[in-house]
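Structure tokens please, single chain.
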Amino acid sequence: MEVVLEQMLAARETRAMRQTSLHREYGLPMISFCMNIPGPVKDTPLIRRGFLSGCAMLDAQLPGEAIRYRQVFPAVTGWEAFYVLDLPALQIKKITTVIEDSLPLGRLFDMDVLTEDLTKLDRDEVGGKSRDCIVCGAAGRGCASRRTHSVAELQQATREILTRHFAREDAERIGARAVQSLLDEVDTTPKPGLVDCRNNGSHKDMDRAMFYASARALQSYFHRCARIGMQTAAQSPQATFHQLRTAGLQAEQEMFAVTGGVNTHKGAIFTLGLLCGAAGRLWNPVSGWDPDALCAEVARMTASTILKDFEAGQADTVGRRLFAERGIQGIRGEVARGLPSVGSFGLPLFLDLTRRGLSAEQAGAVTLLHLICRVEDTNLIGRGGPEGAGQAREQVQSLLEAQDLPSREQLEALDDWFIARNLSPGGCADLLAAIYFVKQLACEGQPD
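Here you go.
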């Protein structure tokens, strides 16, 4: 919505009245914060997100015990925030100047600091430099005073500053959520035959500490996948997949370096890497992610190439051998179909279980059981053969038929049964991590 001069003048008057009122009530220094936005449009979802990020930075840097008043006022002329602080005004000005100068987004922040007598402090009083032009980078206010750049140029520069900032921030957030989903998966306890807080399952070469180290070592990879998705969003989905596959091979070596050659997360590197790339391709700075869209994007990236590539390969892995011998597609078929076990089945089931009162951990444990009954898990088949995998599915199915919400004691007994037969549904565990990841992105949206 465009605003006119009269509205801006009225907003300025309202701001002065609020400052005066706060001065009378508290008699302390204050911050009056708004955004420096050129042109007649002062409030959009993107601008608002920038403003709220500025508030978050202030909240993080200001001592909580010093805040006597904090209020945000939404307005079409631009949102404003007021802080009254029991701190020396010069100390406050140093904090706001550091925030304004610490990153490109800060160039759009207008954090005025007023003393106890409503005197506005200048940046140079705390050693701050003059602010550069957002278009050409020239120092000082020369470009503004000479009107060197058009409103359209200034608006474009503003959009680029905001978009670049949130692209970096959200790629990091995607990577962090992927790591957290792996940590949540290993902590879900008890799980049949899998490493968890109870035991190491059917695995003698790995434990929970190794899973933690492996997951954290992969954060830069998941961040890279998100950036690849963003950078190739205008290209074909297959082009994104090609770059993700190259990054995934490198990530496997990074994993093995941390684990001493033990395969903790090879399946997750594939599945979560694709989801991070899909999140990057679908990213925009003012909305979150839809689970169905994420899974559909995975299919768009992989469907036309992955099965052809799989068929052309040598039977040098369990998954490829099972495909060659029995036509079992495993996780490759799952991603080529758009991860139906995640988006269409697993996530709705998990959310329904939490609505029924289960904790996230309990819901995850039960969801895993349903995945075991539904998915052709090549890890399970590789350890127990088709017969052993079939017996495992029958065991889980019998438990769910007898009790749709198994007790912890029943889950522990199932875990012991799997361990005694050296069975481990690792592929289903990867899908559970994918469910956790999609749930986090879809339910949290963009931060306020």
